[in-house]
Amino acid sequence: MRSITRTVVAAPVLGFAALMAFAGPASAAEGTVMAELSPVPVNPVDATGQAMATINGTTMSFELAAQGLLAGAPHAAHIHFGAEARQMCPAASDNNAAPLSGEMHPEEHLTTTEGAPAYGEIVVSLTTSGDATPSSGLAVDRFATGEDIEYSRGDVQVSEEVARAVLAGEGVVVVHGVDYDGDGTYGPGDRGVSDLDPALPGEATDPAICGVLNASQMGGVPAGGVETGAGSTTGTENLGLIGAGVGAVAAAGGVALYARRRSSTDS
Questions:
Q1: What domains are defined for the chain?
Q2: Second label for 43, Cα 20 to 30 Å away, from 119, 125, 183, 255?
Q3: Which residue would you say has higher pLDDT here, 33 or 250?
Q4: 137 closest CA partner among 244, 48, 245
């Protein structure tokens, strides 16, 4: 009776060990996702864009292209993610916050703060070169400039959490910069100062176009990707204004064991 009891109890234990042994370590994040970028509701933008991100472990390559943005102006661009966010682009109904400093007609402006519950915080800054962390969220000298932008990179390091979130369709690409008053440059106007940095006009940091990175949208890729780190550098009339806010944005975030046991039959 004693040997039968030992055999019955040991069986599920050995079975679990075998399953664990053959399961091995979790596979590294790997894959490609794409987003079609369209205007953020409420904001007067007539632009479109495309973004693609490829993940290999914790290394990201990306391509970003956009057409119809404010000419001669730099456009900050990021991948956003938040575990508590809706992981989507904002809706017109998100335009419900109280007026910001200097903001008149708030119903006509969907700000970055108002969009955050939809897309979350910055997790990757889509800079043309150098640091790509949230700390470079307003690194104007390292974002593309102009009406039509197009650039790519292949050396961005991200966390495992971000890599898996992006591949799971939870990353949202946002390109910023809205000329509300149509004067061809970033200025305070009726929008007032930025909710990210009061030294900047809100026009410079409000979301313009947005899209969710998703494998189901892999019908094409941004056309004519340029060399890594390349991007338009025109529009210097806006650099001094926005450069004051550089660095103002920051984020808030094998070996398998194989056991083999041999037991003798208890006679």
A1: 30-243 (2.60.40.200)
A2: 125
A3: 33
A4: 245
The CB density around residue 28, as the number of other CB atoms within 10 Å, is 13
pLDDT at 122: 97
Q: Is 210 helix (H, G, I), strand (E, B) or coil?
A: strand
CA distance 179 to 72: 12
Distances (CA, A) of 160 to 163, 164, 165, 198: 5, 6, 8, 33
Mean pLDDT across the stretch 191-205?
Answer: 92
> Residues 199, 245: contact at Cβ < 8 Å?
yes
Phi/psi for 10 (5° steps) reads -70, -30
Match 């864009």 to its residue by tokens.
49
Separation CA 152–CA 225 (nearest Å): 6
Mean pLDDT, the chain, rounded, equals 78
Q: What strands lie across the sheet with 207-212, from one edge to the other?
A: 121-125, 77-81, 172-176, 207-212, 30-39, 48-56, 59-67, 149-157
Strands 121-125 and 59-67: unpaired
Torsion of CA 40, 41, 45, 47, to 10 degrees: 50
Highest mean pLDDT among 29-33, 102-106, 123-127: 123-127
Q: Which of 126, 148, 129 is nearest to 137 (CA)?
A: 126
pLDDT for 128 = 95
What H or E segment, with its residue span, contains residue 51? strand 48-56
Of residues 235 and 252, more confidence is placed in 235
